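Help needed: design a sequence for this.
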């Protein structure tokens, strides 16, 4: 699937995710194979429907999902939970700047801008579960 290089406390780890079935990932770390069990995804909170009131968008600056060009979006490298969003719509970022933090397999991963540009859309919320290749932030 995907290969990653991590440096933790000065020690280099080459991690390859070979398979993910339900909540168990098969990974190879520096040549040793491990089976990693991930926490089960929490059920999304169900919202109460109130009749007779017009619905209000949660965030007025958030573009409608159908109007966003996700081809320019930074995508999730692996499944996880968004723990922090560092940027806002309209921010200028440089290649390598941290956009958000994705927790996967009990590790916090800084998701960085792949190119310099302006943040035009944030497609996730803090606490949201995302799958591999889910669009996260659009930088144009």
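Sure. Designed sequence:
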């Amino acid at each position: 699937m995907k290969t990653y290089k991590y440096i933790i406390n000065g020690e280099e780890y080459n991690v390859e995710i070979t398979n993910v079935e339900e909540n168990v990932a098969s990974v190879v770390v520096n040549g040793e194979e491990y089976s990693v069990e991930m926490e089960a995804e929490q059920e999304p909170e169900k919202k109460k429907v109130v009749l007779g009131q017009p619905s209000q968008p949660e965030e007025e600056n958030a573009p409608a999902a159908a109007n966003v060009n996700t081809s320019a979006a930074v995508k999730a490298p692996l499944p996880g939970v968004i723990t922090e969003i560092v940027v806002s719509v309209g921010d200028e970022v440089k290649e390598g700047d941290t956009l958000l933090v994705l927790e996967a397999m009990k590790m916090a991963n800084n998701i960085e801008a792949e190119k310099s540009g302006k943040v035009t859309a944030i497609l996730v919320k803090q606490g949201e579960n995302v799958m591999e290749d889910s669009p996260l932030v659009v930088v144009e």
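Residues 34 and 66 are 40 Å apart (CA to CA).
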